[in-house]
Amino acid sequence: MYGYEVFHEELIKNLIESVHDGKSSHAYIFEGEKGLGTLEAARLFAAALTCSNTSISPCGTCQTCIESKADTNPDIIYVRPQKDKKSIGADDMRALSDDVAIKPFNSERKIYIIEDGALLTEPAQNTFLKTFEEPPEYAVFIMLIENLSTLLDTVLSRFTLVHFPVLSEERIKKYITEKYPEEKERLPFLLKYCSGIPETVDAVINDSEFESLRDISLEKIFALASRDKRDAFVIQKFLEEKKENINQILDFWLSFVRDAVLIQLNARDKIMNVDKKDILKDFSSKTNPEIVLMLYDRLVTAQKMIKRYVNIKGLSLWLSLKK
Description:
Layout: H1 9-20, E1 27-31, H2 38-50, H3 63-69, E2 76-79, H4 90-100, E3 110-114, H5 122-131, E4 139-145, H6 153-156, E5 160-163, H7 169-179, H8 187-193, H9 198-205, H10 210-219, H11 221-225, H12 229-241, H13 246-264, H14 277-286, H15 289-307, H16 312-320
Parallel strand pairs: 1-4, 1-5, 2-3, 3-4
Helix pairs in contact: 1-2, 2-3, 4-5, 10-13, 12-16, 13-14, 13-15, 15-16
């Protein structure tokens, strides 16, 4: 669409038409899971907002459109954490407020794309609110976020919410078959695993080690569920050897255990790892349902522990403690 790879054409079309009709807002939240192309959609919308040919924006041929596509448009500013920081703080928002006071260079509007609203600290959000007290007419803010719960209600109330849903199975199937026609054999698994998110499809298919890591992770599933303390060391050693892939391994394990729960509930038609159903059937038949459910809960917690930088030894012990 206009040279940008977006997956919600109708939604973006409506937003662009609002620009043509003079009904655009000064603040938007693009809410949707990572991998749905919300950043690309924001780039396209920003190009439409700054295009010189307002009646047909984005025209794709004017100087501002060319600069927007190349990410060199001085009137489109990307808001990210500083290189040495993991979040966007109050000082960053004060600097942004100062920049907002400066008029656009070449366009009628000046666009600020906040790439991940979840990185805004609470003080940053409160500081940001001051910018909305008397915002200049030319300023437009586009915030990308996965989970609205990380934002203050006072911030949410000032934005126009635009929800980006995951793609339907029909749409994601079309995406896979057209872009990766050689993936016919893995298609059933990809449809389940990628859950309507095209960038996940790209990541899986272009990762040469994905299947080998998935197979090795599945081999450890019995040790993961074991009460034998020796198996705890097997898991610890495996995670230490593969520490660079620990998030992906936890994702694999969680999907395997989830499938085992579904098999035990006689809901095999809903399992994700359809190409591994025989191994998972064997695992589910040999593992106590209470252990499977406990393991599922512990894996969910383990993912949170990794985000808090808990060490691998501590994580392994947590996964292995089964009463």
